[in-house]
Design goal:
By secondary structure, the protein is of the alpha/beta class. It has a domain of about 325 residues: TIM Barrel (Alpha-Beta Barrel), CATH 3.20.20. Helices cover about 40% and strands about 20% of the residues. It is built from 17 helices and 19 strands. Strands 4-3-2-6-17-18-19 form a 7-stranded mixed beta sheet. A 3-stranded parallel beta sheet has the order 7-8-9. The chain has a 3-stranded parallel beta sheet with strand order 14-15-16, sandwiched between helices. Helix 5 crosses helix 6, helix 12 packs across helix 14 and helix 15 packs across helix 16.
């Protein structure tokens, strides 16, 4: 703005008054055009996960729990905030999603499970998908408190109780043996506003499995979980099954022996023969069909590797044991006892499973199947620690052939997509939830850089490195 004054026609005092008024006007106009934010991060590099690139010299303006706007850092003057944090080029990506964890163990383990929430957040996990259990009212209450900013932890999507057969494998599950019980079970889940339906295969029949899926599909409910090995995955997908947890079930589609093995009623005893008869042509055909149906698969490689190594890895000095309640570590004995009973055969069999499942990941991803990163951490899954385990899962996905960018997609992009929430999560854009992970190094160059956490934004709230360390201290065993 320029002010031209003719000194010959007015006196000096008039000039000063004119200039003063003009400067006030400029100041007011400037303030009026500034966009107000609750928090501004500036001098950052935004990690565009979907496009696999980094955008340097940026700022993110946050209002409430949402991103107000992103812009060039040079335009900081266009914004105002009482909290402006300059991050010297740090890398900012969407907060991590762990798409398969567990809160469970009954009333005795409620507080121990609750203490996993700050542990998850301290490792950059801003959203989790719970695998279902027996403490649903507490899990839903924690989620409310987290969103009200009265509790530190990730957002939680929960299915409530699992649906299983007449002899459920886990406490708190709902028994389903026929069509009527399938309807009642889904009525129950809808009454508590469950986020999706988790199916389990303790002794669920294939008929009940199909009935649950068909009825859930008619209600618009998402379904995923385990599948009775007597059932047919492709039929389940036709009925509306949205996803599957672990790779046992897609494995059936890769072997020419699948039908004959199913007829024997071997159950999980068929896994090794299926692996030994893996047929690449059959596999790729099945993967393409699943991809066509926008199917989601959660491989859970890290828990598989951890369990396979129970008899050969000494976990007694794991630093994270200091942050896990003894009540939870006591539950680890169940898996340990199973491994000890199996001995060397257990170790060798599980090791083969780890290799075979890992080899399935890349062709599945390339076919268009939506791979989900999930750790399977929580009570009963020995030494699979919440928080760090999702980082280990991402590393194993890269080891399986995915690029770091593709591995990140399985967490922060496909996680929200499972719930049709891509308008709210998955990228750093105006209007999306302000769940942000700030890293010292670029995760697109090396997936282990997700562990180099500088700070965190959870629902618009800033957590410095000191704050995150304090979260860990708050749950450390005395």
């Amino acid at each position: 703005m320029y002010i031209l004054v003719e000194f010959n026609s007015i006196n000096t005092s008039t000039v000063y008054r004119y200039l003063y008024s003009a400067l006030i006007l400029i100041f007011i106009t400037s303030c009026a055009t500034q966009k107000e934010a609750d928090l501004i991060l500036t001098n950052i590099s935004i990690v565009d996960v979907e496009n696999g690139k980094v955008i340097p010299d940026q700022l993110i303006a946050i209002s409430g729990d949402k991103i107000l706007e992103t812009d060039d850092a040079s335009k900081l003057g266009n914004y105002s905030s009482d909290q402006i944090i300059s991050l010297d080029g740090k890398f900012v990506m969407p907060g991590l999603w762990d798409n398969h964890i567990h809160f469970r163990g009954g009333a005795e383990l409620v507080e121990a499970n609750k203490n996993l929430l700050p542990l998850l957040l301290a490792f950059g996990v801003t959203t989790v998908r719970d695998g279902g259990g027996d403490i649903t009212p507490y899990v839903q209450l924690w989620n409310e408190l987290i969103h009200d900013k009265e509790l530190s932890g990730p957002s939680i999507f929960t299915p409530g109780p699992k649906l299983d057969g007449s002899r459920p494998a886990w406490e708190g599950s709902i028994e389903v043996t026929n069509n009527s019980e399938a309807i009642s079970a889904l009525d129950s889940l809808e009454s508590i506003n469950a986020d999706f339906v988790k199916i389990y295969d303790g002794n669920l029949t294939k008929e009940a499995f199909y009935q649950i899926i068909e009825k859930a599909e008619s209600r618009g409910l998402k379904t995923t979980g385990h599948m009775p090995l007597s059932a047919d995955l492709m039929k389940a997908v036709e009925l509306g099954l949205d996803g599957t947890e672990h790779l046992y079930y897609p494995l059936k589609e890769t072997s020419p022996l699948a039908d004959s093995l199913t007829e024997t009623g071997m159950g999980y005893g068929m896994i090794t023969p299926l692996m030994n008869s893996y047929n690449e042509e059959l596999a790729n055909k099945a993967y393409r069909e699943l991809a066509k149906n926008e199917f989601y698969v959660t491989p859970t490689l890290h828990v598989g590797k951890t369990l396979a190594e129970l008899l050969v890895v000494d976990h007694s000095n794991d630093t994270l044991l200091n942050y896990i309640s003894p009540k939870i570590t006591d539950t680890y004995q169940r898996r340990l006892n199973s491994a000890k009973r199996g001995g060397e055969n257990y170790t060798n069999t599980r090791a083969q499973w780890v290799t075979s499942f890992s080899n399935m990941v890349k062709p599945m991803y390339d076919s268009g199947i939506k791979i989900l990163a999930g750790s399977d951490s929580g009570p009963f899954n020995s030494f699979t620690y919440p928080g760090i385990s999702i980082h280990k899962e991402l590393e194993l996905l890269v080891n399986a052939g995915l690029t770091p960018q593709e591995a990140l997609m399985t967490s922060v992009v496909y996680g929200p997509e499972f719930f049709d929430l891509e308008d709210d999560y998955g990228s750093i854009q105006s209007g999306k939830i302000a769940d942000l992970l700030i890293l010292d190094d670029n995760p697109l160059e090396n997936i282990s850089n997700t562990q180099k956490i500088n700070s965190l934004i959870s629902k618009g709230s800033w957590y410095s490195k000191t704050d995150l360390d304090d979260l860990l201290k708050s749950i450390k065993n005395e």
